[in-house]
Amino acid sequence: MKYMLIMRVTEAAVAAAEDVPFEEIINKMGRYNEELVTAGVLLAGDGLSDAAEGFVVDFSADDPIVTDGPYGEIHELFNGFWMIQVASKEEAVHWARRCPLGPGTKLEVRRVTDESDFEEFADNEYIQKQAGWREELGQ
Amino acid sequence: MTDDATADLTAALDAVWRSEGGRVVAALAAMTGDVAAAEDLAQEAVAAALAQWPESGIPRNPGAWLTAVGKRRAIDAWRREAAFDDRVRTLIADAERAEPVDDPGTVVVDREPIDDDLLRLLFTACHPVLTREAQIALTLRAVGGLSSEAIARMFLVPTATVQARITRAKKSLTAAHVPFETPPRDQWADRLGGVLRVIYLIFTEGYAPTSGTAVVAPDTAAEALRVGRILAALVPDEPEVQALVALMEFQASRFAARVAADGSAVLLEDQDRRRWDRGQITRGRDRLARATALGGGRGSYALQAAIAQEHAVAASVAQTDWPAVVGFYDELLALTGSPVVALNRAIAVAMTGDVERALADVDAVASSKNLLDSPLVPSVRGELLQRSGRFDEARAAFEDAAARSANERRRAVLLAKAAQIPWGP
């Protein structure tokens, strides 16, 4: 089973983190990542850069509207992710609990779908093509 | 506590144990110098967790909690033995200085020495004084944090058999005075090879189960891959370790495509390659590239991984670079002298178009003692004979292979192949 650990932080927590030496944060996260690697469960993971560097596409109107980030009405920023491979939901809980995060941050943990989730639609042309797309995208 | 809460806690503790059990046993073995004792202490710590966690909740760092409790038990046992010589006094003082065991939740774990301990544990579990079965059981239980029940399910043997293997393994380690250490430099290469062999044996039991009805056992293979990744993280500069993980990633990437809707096996040439796990293939390629960059690439696992990679990147059987595959098999054959490798090489030779040469190669290895009872030779001969239009001989070969196969699914595939061959001229 693959799970994605999605880090969400409030803007207040981002502001508070500015007082902590960045190297300290890197070290803490580094040790956690190292644990995931030496436990043989980490598949991928990355942090996201400042939301101001990103942008938002809003589909409320007929023509999507692109605006600069951060997205003002969002109170929690998606700030990074890990992809882990484990044998059970409980194991995902275990690793999520070990993440060195503090007040104002949350991890949303979601199981990543696999082929078995689309069994009913196995004949669907696009489900069949999907694996091929993955190949082209090098995923 | 309600039954549900008990079940939840048991499941959570199982997950903790799978993730941290190896480190806990390793730390306790480093303290006591004795893997057998460490295993017992760890089980006591788990029992303590089952008693305490319903009240206290699961600690923030459950692995450190279990380690601290195990160490406390070890100290208690030493005290009870009352043989208070200086050595024990020093050990207790060291242990108590290092671990504020009264509040295990706050223990700060120093990772690096623990990683060394985990490597020692892996080497000890795969020590050559142990039988292959014992090495496998101890590796999965002590390093992989699996229960005896889970291991028994993987190998389709009774739980009591696994427990007996582990008990015997612990006794053998004690009797042989196996030190808890990474092997001395002059034995390192050999011993690491032994660890890799154990991991790959576990993997192949998942890739092609030797008994029962399943075509693949993905959970078993996943455990081997996990232990392989752990080893690769512990010794990141060993090319053959990276290569073994690469090989397992490539082979596991085909699991979904290897099983048909009715549960029967699908051969490589008939697999829907769109269903291969591309993410896993990418990870395999990265690992193999790393092995090569480390100066490897010509070891047994690296060559097998290189062959698997040729299949993984080819769009179809026809578009596979068969001459390259034959080249890797040549090197692998020179390295191992294995008749199984010679057979696989013959298939690759046939795929380059030279079926007659391939048949001659198969006949040359058919007399090998190791393959006398195996279904491999007749099944490969069947493929090649069919390809060259010698149908009656091909049918007989497939039937012969089916009669020698212990796996029901594979037997069915071989009989189906025999049945599909046209009769008469």
TrEMBL record, chain A:
It comes from the Bacteria. SUPFAM superfamilies: Dimeric alpha+beta barrel. Residues 1-114 form the YCII-related domain. Belongs to the YciI family. This is DGPF domain protein. The lineage of its organism: Bacteria, Bacillati, Actinomycetota, Actinomycetes, Mycobacteriales.
From TrEMBL, chain B:
Coiled coil: none annotated. Residues 18-82 form the RNA polymerase sigma-70 region domain. GO terms for biological process: DNA-templated transcription initiation; response to stress. Residues 191-291 form the DUF6596 domain. PANTHER family: BLL6612 PROTEIN, BLL6612 PROTEIN-RELATED. Belongs to the sigma-70 factor family. ECF subfamily. This is RNA polymerase sigma factor. It comes from Gordonia phthalatica.
